[in-house]
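Please predict the structure of the following assembly.
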Amino acid sequence: MTRLSSGNIDLDKRLQGGFPEGECVLITGEPGTGKTIFGIQFLYNACQEGKKCVIIATEEVPEKIILHGKALGFDLEPFVETNQLTMIHFLELRANNLAEGYTNVCMHIDDLNNLAHIIQDDVDVIILDNLGTFSIGIDLKQFRDKLDTLAYVLSNQKRTSLIVMDATAHELTHRIAEYSTYGTIRLMTKENPYTGKMERFMYIPKMRGTKISLDIINYDITEEGIKLFPAKANR
Amino acid sequence: MTRLSSGNIDLDKRLQGGFPEGECVLITGEPGTGKTIFGIQFLYNACQEGKKCVIIATEEVPEKIILHGKALGFDLEPFVETNQLTMIHFLELRANNLAEGYTNVCMHIDDLNNLAHIIQDDVDVIILDNLGTFSIGIDLKQFRDKLDTLAYVLSNQKRTSLIVMDATAHELTHRIAEYSTYGTIRLMTKENPYTGKMERFMYIPKMRGTKISLDIINYDITEEGIKLFPAKANR
Amino acid sequence: MTRLSSGNIDLDKRLQGGFPEGECVLITGEPGTGKTIFGIQFLYNACQEGKKCVIIATEEVPEKIILHGKALGFDLEPFVETNQLTMIHFLELRANNLAEGYTNVCMHIDDLNNLAHIIQDDVDVIILDNLGTFSIGIDLKQFRDKLDTLAYVLSNQKRTSLIVMDATAHELTHRIAEYSTYGTIRLMTKENPYTGKMERFMYIPKMRGTKISLDIINYDITEEGIKLFPAKANR
Amino acid sequence: MTRLSSGNIDLDKRLQGGFPEGECVLITGEPGTGKTIFGIQFLYNACQEGKKCVIIATEEVPEKIILHGKALGFDLEPFVETNQLTMIHFLELRANNLAEGYTNVCMHIDDLNNLAHIIQDDVDVIILDNLGTFSIGIDLKQFRDKLDTLAYVLSNQKRTSLIVMDATAHELTHRIAEYSTYGTIRLMTKENPYTGKMERFMYIPKMRGTKISLDIINYDITEEGIKLFPAKANR
Amino acid sequence: MTRLSSGNIDLDKRLQGGFPEGECVLITGEPGTGKTIFGIQFLYNACQEGKKCVIIATEEVPEKIILHGKALGFDLEPFVETNQLTMIHFLELRANNLAEGYTNVCMHIDDLNNLAHIIQDDVDVIILDNLGTFSIGIDLKQFRDKLDTLAYVLSNQKRTSLIVMDATAHELTHRIAEYSTYGTIRLMTKENPYTGKMERFMYIPKMRGTKISLDIINYDITEEGIKLFPAKANR
Amino acid sequence: MTRLSSGNIDLDKRLQGGFPEGECVLITGEPGTGKTIFGIQFLYNACQEGKKCVIIATEEVPEKIILHGKALGFDLEPFVETNQLTMIHFLELRANNLAEGYTNVCMHIDDLNNLAHIIQDDVDVIILDNLGTFSIGIDLKQFRDKLDTLAYVLSNQKRTSLIVMDATAHELTHRIAEYSTYGTIRLMTKENPYTGKMERFMYIPKMRGTKISLDIINYDITEEGIKLFPAKANR
């Protein structure tokens, strides 16, 4: 199986080289667990490897994401300028709709499926940050059917995709998204029983075609992005 | 009682030879517990024993299941070519329906009952992966009535069936599916109290006509499929 | 108070001789706790004592119950042949209704009350396996009113009845059925704190007119049916 | 404050002589905690003291209550014969209504309020067993308003009343009934932390105008009715 | 900030002199925690200090409150006779409405707001026992808007008010009432970890403009009313 | 990144200088955790630094907030007089609407979005106390869409905003507000495991562009406002 680097060497080692190419991986986490940074690192690396990329950002404007990346040493701007990276202005769409008084013109997961169909044929990598926006307010059966379909279409088109989902929406949908994707990574903040302090942990319950460890991995958000602690420091 | 091997020698030993022939067994689990691999091993073995088999895959395309099997050393392709194994393209049906704009053409459990009736008379073994798709969005009474009926029809037709169900759907239906089937196997990931690490466990609460142990069995997903750890290593 | 043996000597000792004659006892349990076996043992014994019996089986066909009994050494077939034991084909009724497309022709608890009225006058013992089928999808007040009525009618007619109910339905109805019956037995699987292993336990919270112990009783499902462990082995 | 013996000397000691006369006391408990026996003992004692009594039994027929009492040494029959004790056939009313096909003719709490008004003026003591029947299926506000009213009316008429309520209905109504009554006694079965065994306990969170201990009191159901264990044996 | 004694010297010490004058304090508790006694003590003291007072009692008739107070040594009767204390017969209003067949004429929180407006201008102190009656059966947003308004109006009119609320209604409204009031006192019964016995505790999470301790305070209901245990005896 | 002091030196040190300028920070807490005091301190400091400020107070009248601040040594009055600080009378609007009988004229989150648009262009700092008022009674999807939009508009206009939200509303909306804001601070009261006493703690799960510690910080509400305990005293 071909792999695409996650943009994080330590994580790649735990994934037999990176994310499975042409498949869909879900990453979930609470506020402050660095979900967006994971996305930026993956995106930056994919751009560097010459992949054509798209990011659909539902909670942040592209300018902020670029600033966020620059501060961590991942400058996405050159890729945007050469059109290797396309940023879809989803938050602005949502805000403008509301501002104009269309109180019910919230984006639906259908829009997401449509997006999957209109994305240019040569796009290799898709980042969606965050799926949670699409999951609230529709019934669970619809959400599952549509997410299964989205994952099916994307995988069929051989796009490697990283779907970010906030933990609240993930819990409200009973963690059902994890069944639709090829792999899933959970980010969490919890007390380290050895140090008695709150720390960040990553857990990978599922990555098809990949020999994964079920160990809970301690990580930190540093000024150069996500850093995994070596295995010994982990439980 | 005649037995049909589960495709896993160690599990067979714990089931007095395998799954009860002509009966319906439920297997449930969270993402990454290897539910589909259990299905592939059982299917591969049944094909090898000359049984006529059908797999209804609601979350994966047949090609992926075949790839998945090959990677683990269970090549299903020859059986497909000789029509000994039929793969029903359920995921594609679901996706196409949605793509064409039929937003409510999700598959219902009724379709499943119909399937049970149209499957060819000479089919011995049926794998359904996964029942969860059919259980969300209908009321509990209907789900139970229809699953009881499905299990009754399949058993009446002397088909040995393995029904895979994701843990989320299983919990949402209050684990009620376990009353409808002849036996049930639960797969789970939890902390091993002796090692302090996350590990995979299997628990068999029910297998009619079979002397089973209630011990929780430690297992792993290896490159040759599911391996049960010997009893001593278990609690 | 006259007693009717439960078909299990050890249980009888704990019930001052057996179930109170002419009264209604509830038995609840999760999948694999042997609820149906309890019913078969009681039924077999009642038939042997010359009682006229009826079993209403909602989840299994009569043939399977007979096979199940034979495997454990309780052959019900001769009693069926002499009409001492009547088996009501409830599962088939449910399945046929569904198969013919009557999607809403599920059995209701009203049917149960009607049954109570049409059962032949000379029937002494009634087994219902399982009440859960009747409790889902109706509101709690109705369920309680109708179960109170059923228990009242059966007790009025001096029938000894054993009502089996699955734990899921029992929990969903907030264990309310226990107030309507004369006695109640709960079967469960849980970790034995002394052995650290999953084991089966029986708990009798209520048996009117009977001096009962509140001890939790360890039992096993053996090849000769249910066996209670002696009191010392219990906590 | 005048007291009316609870029919149990040990309990009376803990209540400064018994239940407050002319007031309403609630007693709640799970199946098998002896709620009805508490009622019988209180009733028997009140009859002996020459009080005119009424019992409204919603789950048992009067004959059974009399049998139940006799077995414990509290023979209510003579009081019934002299009309000192009136037994209202509520269960039969409920059952007959259902049997005649009036599927919605369940008793409502309104009927209870009407009862309070039509009970003969010279009745001193009222036992209602059990209030749970009236609380399910109406909204919480109505239940509270009506129970407040019932308690108000009964107290206004200087009747001493004991209201039995099953724990399920009590929990489903969020224990709200405890605010409407003058006092409340909770019966429960739980593990005794010292013996490791399931035992019965009584807890009195509230008894207005009475200096009560908040100690949890161990009791047993013996062949002579409820017996409280001496304080030392309690925690 | 001017203070008005709570009627309990020990509590006053913990509140820098008493309740903040002209503000609204909430007191919540389970059955038997002495909520009404707290109200009586506060009322008695306020009357003694010459304040003009009103009590709105929704669960008890004024006569009972007076008896209750007398038994504890707080005789409110003289103040009623001189019209310094007005008792509003709310329970009787509720009961009469129901008795006359107006099944839906329950009091609403709107009535409460109206009351706030019609109370005589010279009233200094208002006790409402209990707010719970007004909170069930309306939606949370309404409850919050109206309680905010009530607290605003009362504070605007410089009335010192004590609002009693039962713990059940408080939990059902998600403890939201605590945000609307100036201060809040929670009464509870729980196991004292040092003595292993059930005891009564008071906790003051909030009292604006007051330096409060977050210590949980042990108290008892004695024959002279509420007594706080000295700080050392507390945890 | 430019920082704006939180008005608390110790907190500023933990935030690399203060709140990120031009961004939106959420602060949540239970009653009595000092949410409003946090707001007052921040507001007072921003006024001192010459920022033009607006406070939207939904639960308290401006006069009380000024009194509250004065008592703690943060006199906001001079800034109000010079129009550097504008106080929007939201509570009075709510109360008047209700008083006039417009029972459904509660403020909606739409009003909040409108406010964002009509606030004068030269306003630098906005405090909203509290968002909870706007979150109850609308569905979760709407709340999220509108809060995302509000945060987007405010950030777009380069306003630094502090949004106070009560813990009850925060929990009822599944903590979803934390995903919409740039940073979030949680205030809580809990038992300190080392002292066994209830104490106040602050936790900062998220502050974009800021290296934060996940340590739980012990703090107190003193007569000079919020004081953080030095790190050693913290766990």
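The radius of gyration of chain E is 17 Å. DSSP finds ten helices and eleven strands in chain E.
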